[in-house]
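ENTRY TYPE: paired fold submission
RECORD: A
CONTENT: sequence, then structure tokens
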Amino acid sequence: MTFSEQLLQELAEAGGRIVKSGSGPELEKWPSRVAAARRSRRIPKTKELHGGGCRGGYEIKLVDIPAWRLAALKPVPVPSRLTRPHNVVRAMQSEPQPLGLTKPVQGRALRLIQALIIATENAGHSSAAGQTGSAPPPHRRRRAFPHFTITAQGQAVEFLVLQEQDRTEHVATEKELAEAEKNSWIRIPRFDYTPSERLRFVLSGGQPHRASEWSDAPGRSLEDQLAEIAQEVTLRGEAAERKRLDEIEAARQKRIRWEAAMEEARVQLRRGVPCQALRSTGNGMAPHNPTDGVRERRTHPGWDHALRSG
């Protein structure tokens, strides 16, 4: 039996989680061992192996891959021409330099946006235009105003469309060399940057799942990745909705506990037994032991009303 098979068997017997204790060189070997187990192709297709340091040593877990990562995504069709542009795309077309992109990539960028918006609206989401005629400077690429927004279940996901830059070694000119020799503060740049035909989509807002950036890559264009981007918008919307429902449920449970405590206090007062009044704290409700009814009423502003309502 190989080491990878032994590790997976040990994880299966331990319920999917083990901690390797110890220190020094023996413990330091586990990251490379976990990496080797990942490469062994012994891990089930629906599982993934995680490893990392923990308080007791090195933790190894075999967990289920989320269902959304296993889902077969339907490709998003990109139109060859914009015959009926969406309102958001039409707002961009009205700008002299849409999204701040150079002319060779403008048409493709607008067709990608059109395809993404149509796909997400078919899923029940909405979209709106942002600052459609501007490109952020390089040092503010991640903090610029969005070019457009797609909203899923109340969660706004903002999009920036950026044009990648090609970097080449800068060849100093005679003029630059002369000025640098004359003035010590002048620095000759090491590289030259020119706009390429590659594009990048940067997303912000909501809880990330797959990623927050997608770009053209060798053998995988943005057209091939639009389905993942559309799914990412949906996932962020679903996460926001779950969080909203969890907060509603937490508030409801808190209210139930509060009402139960008030009812218990009313019962104890009727019996003439000293009770625990509740005082409001920064983190919710906490018990308070009054010595008499006067102090009790002063402890909580709504106490008189609560007692009368009982």
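RECORD: B
CONTENT: sequence, then structure tokens
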Amino acid sequence: MAEYPELLPGLAFLPLGRACRAEEVEVREEPIMRSIKSGVGVAALAAALSFGAGAAFAQGKELVFGLQCDRTGPTATVGVNLCPGYHDYIGLINSKGGVAGFKIKVIEVDNEYKVPPAIEAHERFKKEGAVIEGLFGTPQTAALNKKLEEDKIVGTSPGFGTASAADGKRFPYSFPIAASYWSQAGAAMEFAKERLGGLKGKKIAYLYYDNPAGKEPLPILEDIQKTEGFELRTFAVPAPGLEMGAQVLDITGRYKPDFIITHLFGKAPSVSIKELKGKGFPLSKVVSLVWGSAEADIVAAGGMGVAEGYNGIQFAGVGKDFQVIKDIEAMYKAQGKPVPKEMDSTVYYNRGVFIAALHVEAVRNAIKAKGGAAPTSEDVKKGMEQVKGFTLGGLVPPMEITPADHEGGGWCEIWTVKGGKLVQSKKWFQGYRSVIQKHLAAEASKS
């Protein structure tokens, strides 16, 4: 509770309920209708959040958060579970009086995992006075990094986006706030090294989605290859990643690696699990980067039984045994409403909670620094850079974000399918951190 003191005992839960859940708000249409309908949706959302709040918030004390999602595009399997987690945490905070008396109003836009709608969403958030923006998608983040700096609006891209944005001096308003693709690649190699008893002379396959996100880890893998002396072969999967039989056959029948690292997302991870399983490759010798390791991916592949042994990197805790998750469940029960089904997809849902909680933490730091006054996004930037020892009751690693490190250390966990469920098999660790730092320094020297 010390990490989110807004959640004070004795304050009545407010009837936020399902009305505040953004999946029921229409936010994507053709340009003109989209603006009209999303405006109506946001008004409905704001009304739902404020209904019954009464004296909980001072008149006019409201802060706007922008949130980009993909609920209808190729990565909708992520968005439909992650974004409800974000909204539920904000609903919980609002039900307890907000942040230092400020109600949080969330404006969500479905960017469909496309760049133009992402840019349009940013412009809308700027117009609405958002003090922080949750991004969605690596191509979208790359397109917005410069805009965030020009407009002085904080944007977060946890577990995706531009890895070099970990350098806060070069990207002052971009915050990865979780292990970047570089850090994930380092963690995957560290895990493979442990499982294989060393890497020298081994054969590693990298099966990846053929877009900027999929290519992002390549420099790290290639660098580690040089120092560790293993063979690396890469296998690109064209979008949307629903066909990879040829690649998997090439991997398992011809290359025959000792270990496979996969970096797929959307519906592609489930396809990879089924294909590898069908070719007889042991899934215990596979580790997925963070967007291919959720319950939804495993269920779509045929269930936990099919995926036994499959390993996945995580940047937030898995499961429901966290106080903040229990608090959200209690909020729903107090309202006499069923707990939302999205909570069962704990990998993505918990990440949404984590993102929202870190946004709130940055804002709380900013309000405190201003003596209770409303913060600007510039203030929130400084507040984000003051986050230290933030764990959200164990849901995330001990987060420390500084003006120099906007990633928070690049910590990862490994969770493995064992006995019909996801089990933690490696606690928070950093992989090949010196390699990551070297690449960050090299990128900085180019600017």
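NOTES ON RECORD B: Confidence is low (pLDDT under 50) at residues 1-56. The radius of gyration is 21 Å.
STATUS: closed
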